[in-house]
Amino acid sequence: MYRFSLFSLLFLCSGWLVAQTPWETPADRKAKLSTVAFTEQGQTLGKELYQTNCKSCHGDPGKNNVIRLVPLPPDPASVQLQQNSDGSLHYKISEGRGLMPAFKNVLSAEYIWDVISYLRTYNKDYKQQLAVKPTAGGEVFDKVDLKLERDSGHSGVVVQLTGMKGALVKPIPGLEVKLFARRYFGFQVVGKPVDTNAEGMARFEIPKSLPGDSSGNVLLVAQLSDEELFGPVKAESLLAIGLPVYRPPLNEQRALWNVGQKAPIWLLIVYLSVVFIVWGFIFFILFQLRAIFKLGELK
Amino acid sequence: MASEVNTKFLQDKRLDRIATDILRPVGVDRSFLIWMSSLAMLLLVCMYAYYIQLDKGLIVTGLRDYVSWGMYISNFVFFVATSLVGMLISSVLGMMGYKWVKPIGRIAEIIAVAFSAVAGLVIVSDMGRPERLPYVLMYARIQSPILWDVTVVTTYMTLSILLYVFTMIPDMAISKNRIGHAPVWLQKTYDLLSFNFQHTPGQYKILMKSIRILLILIVPTAFAIHTVTSWLFAVTTRPGWDSTIFGPYFLTGAFVAGSAAVIILMYVVRNSYKLSRYITAEHFDKMGKLLFLVSIVYFYFNLNEYLVPAYKMKTFEAHHLKELFVGEFAFMFWSIQLSGLIIPMILLLFKPMRKPFPMLLIASVVLIASWFKRLLIVVPTMEGPFLPKQNVPDAWMVYHPTIVESAITLGTITLAVMIISVLMKLFPVIPIWEIAEEESAHPDQQPVE
C-alpha cells in the first residue's frame, strides 16, 4: 500500500511537471502527411477506434467531458488539439507522454491515420494535404504495384515491382522487398530482404524445408520494406512451393471431445452394454408381472 | 429379504389386525383434500412463475453469463441426492438382513420414486428453451456426462417405481377387499395393481425373484446416478469442482439428506396415521444411529474435500476457499457445516435426542441445510472463473436468485410433496404382508411401543 501511494504520488508529480513544458514534435515528424486521402470509410473506422481506445480519457469530442487527469487530456474538438499538424498528431498518438499512452504498438500507422481522419471531422477549417506522390529514383508515380509469382526455371519466387503514371508502366529498381509465409499464427519471414534489380525484380530462394499444406501450398506475401513512402504495398500468392505436410485435422479421430458420431469405441461399448444389460433386466421384470398375472388366473 | 415366503401368515389372525391398522388412514378424507388442494394452489402459483419464465426466458432468473447454474441445478442435485435413500434402506440394509427396516422400507421407496421423478423436471426448469429437450437425445454425444445423467436418472426412476409396485403386489391383494371405506376407483386401482395375486407359492417365487433382481440392480444404479451427477461438476477443471473424491462425497451427502427425509416422513406416519405400533421409538433410535453413521462418513469426506486443497492453497483454489471460509459465502458455509452436520452429529450421540420429536427437529434442519449445501457447491465456483470478469454489467458478476426462480424451485418441491402425499395416503405406507409374515414367524416378539 505504502509503495503504491508513493508510486502514485511520484506519478502525479511527474504529470504536473511535464504539464509545464509544451509538447514538441520533432520537425521531420511534424511535416509528415498521410499518403491516402481521408475518406468517410476511414473516419467511421477511426470513430470506432477512438471509442475503444481514447474515449475513456478524452471523452466525447466537443462535449468537454474529459477525465480529470494532470495534465488534462484535451477535448479532440478543442483548439489545443486541432492546432497540431497531421504529422504532430500522428507523432503524439504514436509516442505518448506521461499519462497519454503510446499507441504505436497498439494501433498500426494506418489505423492512427484513421483516428486522425476522425478527429479532423471536428475541425471545420481543416483541409487535408496529401503527401506527395510516391517517388522512386526521382520519378513520381501515381501508383506502385507488386506481383508475386514462381520464378520459372528456378526453385524460388520472383517479385516484380512496377510504377504507374498515366499510361506509363515502368519497373522500379533499387527498392527493398520482404517475403513472408502465412503460418497458423501470423507471418514467418522467408529469407533476407532483397533489393529490386534493374528490371524491378527481386528473386527469393524458398528453402526446401518450408512446410506447406497437404499439397505443399504456402500463402506467400511480398511487401515493400519502406511503408512510409508508398503506404502498404503488398502482393499475395498461394503457391505449391512448400514441403507437403499432412496434418490430420484435430477432429478426425475418435475422441472424448469429438462429435457424437466420433465417440471412442470403448465408451460406446461400455455405455451401450451397461444400458442393454440393465434395461434387459427391467423388461425381464416387466414380463414377470405378466407371469404373476397368468398364474393368478389358473387358480 | 428371505426368498422363501412362509404363507402361513395368511391364516394368522394377526394379519387382520395389522391390515386394519395400516389401512385405517387409507382413503380420501377431508383433511387430505384440504392438504392437497392447498398444495395444488401453491403449485398453481409456482406454475404461473414458470409461465413467466417460458414467456420471457431465463432473463427472469438471476442466471447470467458467469453463474449459469444456480438454484435450479443445486435443486436438481438435492433431488437426486434425496432419492438415493431408497437404495440405502431397502437394498443395502434390507439385503443385509436388518429386519427393523421392514416397516420403513416403503417410506424410503416413496421418497425415491417422488424425488427421482421430479428431478427430471427440475432439469427442464433450467432450460431456457424446454421445447428443445428432444435435442438432448437427437444430437446426443455419448461422451457427455449429461447424457449419462439422463440415462441413469430415468433408469433409477424406473427401478424405483418397479420396486415400489412389486413390493406392494401382495398388499394390494390383501387390501383390495378390506378397503370398503375408500372410494370405488381406489378399490379398482388396488385390484389392478394386485395383478391377480392369489398368494400361490408359484407367484411368491416369481415375486421374490423379481424383487431380488430389483434390489440388486438398484445398488449400482443409485451409485451411478449420484456419481454421474457429481461428474457433471468434477470433470471440469474449475476450483471447487476439480476433485477426485466428488463421487463418494456426493454419495455420502446424499445418504445424509435421504435419511433425514425418511425420518421426517416416519414422524408423519407415526403421528398423523397413528401407526406408532409399527413405527416405534426404537425405529427412530435406529435411524438416529444411521444418520450419525452417514453423517460422520460425510464429515470425513468434507474434511478431505476442504482441508487438502486448503493446505496447498493453489492460486485459484485459494480464492475459492477464502470465499467460503472467510469471504462472501462464509456465513452460509459455516451455518451449513455446523447446523447440517456437526451439531446434529453431536446431538445424535445422546439417546434422548434420538427420540421421535427431537429427531424430527434434527432431521428437518439437516434436510434444509443439505439443500443449501448444494447451492454452496454450485454457486461460489461459478462466481470465481479463471479469467477476470469483464465487459458485463456489475449485477451479472454475482448471483442473486429472483422471486420467479425461487417460486419455480418451490414448485418442484411442492410437486414432490404432492406425489409423496398421494402415495402415502392412498396406499398402505407400511408393507402389510412383510410385517404379518414377520410377526407370525416370531409370535412371541411383540414390538415395543
Descriptive report:
The complex is a heterodimer of chains A (299) and B (449). Chain A has 299 residues and is of the alpha+beta class. Chain A has 2 domains: 16-122, Cytochrome Bc1 Complex, Chain D, domain 2 (Orthogonal Bundle); 135-240, Immunoglobulin-like (Sandwich). In chain A, 35% of the residues lie in helices and 19% in strands. Chain A is built from 9 helices and 11 strands. In chain A, strands 6, 7, 8, 10 and 11 form a 5-stranded antiparallel β-sheet that branches. The radius of gyration of chain A is 33 Å and the shape is flat. Chain B is mostly helical and 449 residues long. Chain B has 16 helices and no strands. In chain B, helix 4 packs across helix 9, helix 9 (201-234) packs across helix 10 (246-272) and helix 10 packs antiparallel against helix 14 (356-383). The two termini of chain B are 24 Å apart. The mean pLDDT of chain B is 93.
Percent strand of chain B: under 5%
Average pLDDT, all residues of chain B: 93
| CA-CA gap between termini of chain B | 24 Å
Number of helices of chain B: 16
Low-confidence segments of chain B: none
The count of β-strands of chain B is 0
Outline of chain A, from the CA principal axes? Answer: flat
Tell me which oligomeric state these chains represent.
heterodimer
Mean pLDDT of chain A: 86
Number of strands of chain A: 11
Following the backbone from N to C, one meets helices and strands of chain B in this order, namely HHHHHHHHHHHHHHHH
Uncertain runs of chain A are: none
Using the 3D structure, state the CATH architecture of the largest domain in chain A. Orthogonal Bundle
The count of domains of chain A is: 2
Q: What is the CATH topology classification name of the largest domain in chain A?
A: Cytochrome Bc1 Complex, Chain D, domain 2
Task: Please identify which CATH superfamily of the largest domain in chain A we are dealing with.
Answer: Cytochrome c-like domain
Write the layout of secondary structure elements.
The complex is a heterodimer of chains A (299) and B (449).
Chain A: H1 2-20, H2 27-30, H3 40-53, H4 55-58, H5 79-82, H6 86-95, H7 109-119, E1 135-136, E2 139-140, E3 143-150, E4 157-165, E5 168-171, E6 176-182, E7 187-189, E8 194-195, E9 201-204, E10 217-224, H8 227-230, E11 234-240, H9 265-298
Antiparallel strand pairs in A: 1-2, 3-4, 4-5, 4-9, 6-7, 6-8, 6-10, 10-11
Helix pairs in contact in A: 3-7, 6-7
Chain B: H1 14-23, H2 30-56, H3 71-83, H4 85-95, H5 102-125, H6 133-138, H7 145-175, H8 184-193, H9 201-234, H10 246-272, H11 281-312, H12 315-325, H13 330-348, H14 356-383, H15 403-426, H16 432-441
